[in-house]
Amino acid sequence: MNPLPIIIRIPARADYLDIVRAALFAIASKAGFSYEAIEDMKVAVTEACTNAIRHAYEEGFGGMVELSFLWDEQVLSITVKDDGRGNVVRAAHSAAPSVLHQSPIADVAVGGLGIFLMEALMDEVHVRSENGTEVVLIKRMSRNEEMV
After folding, report:
1. How far apart are the first and last CA of the chain?
2. What CDD domains is this protein classified in (predicted)?
C-alpha cells in the first residue's frame, strides 16, 4: 500500500461515524491487520471521533472532523482532528493515566472512559490541543496477524 495518507473529512455528527468505520475497515484489512485488531481500532477511532463530535463545537454550530490514515510498513497511524475548543478532551487525557488506572470502574464519571479505552486498544495514543484537538492513534502489526 502507498505510504501517502488517506484523508477523510466528515461533518461533526454521529450519523457519519459509519463512514469512518467502513473506511477504517477497508484500509486496515488492505494493510493486513487481523479482524480482532481492526475491531479494536474501530472502537478507538469511534471514541476519538465521538469526543470531537460531542465536545469540540458549540451546540448548534457544526464543524468538521478530519481523519488521516497513514500506513507505513508495519504501523497504521490514524489522526482524528477537529478545529473546536477541545478543553474536555485535554482534561480527560491529563487525568486518564493517574486517575483511571487506580480507580474502580464504578467511580469513573460517565463519558470519562474514552481516552482510557483508546489507550487500552491501541499501541500508542497522543493528544495535542492547539487550535482544536488532534488525537493520534497508532497500531502496530503483530507478527502473528491473520489477514482478513
Report:
1. 15
2. HATPase_RsbW-like (cd16936)
- Retrieve residue 128's grid coordinates: 495535542
Find the helix or strand (DSSP H, E) in which 29 lies. Answer: helix 17-31
Residues 12, 82 contacting (CB under 8 angstroms): yes
If you search the block for the grid coordinates 497511524, which residue do you land on? 77
C-alpha cell at 110: 460517565
pLDDT digit string (tens) for the chain, length 148 residues: 667 899 999 999 999 999 999 999 999 999 999 999 999 999 999 999 999 999 888 776 779 999 999 999 899 999 999 998 755 444 444 444 444 455 554 544 445 678 999 999 999 999 999 889 999 999 999 866 555 5
For the chain, domain boundaries: 6-140
Residue the block writes with cell 486518564: 96
Give the separation between CA 18 and CA 7, rounded to whole angstroms: 16
Compute CA distances 100 → 15, 94, 105, whole Å.
29, 10, 8
Architecture of domain 6-140: 2-Layer Sandwich (3.30)
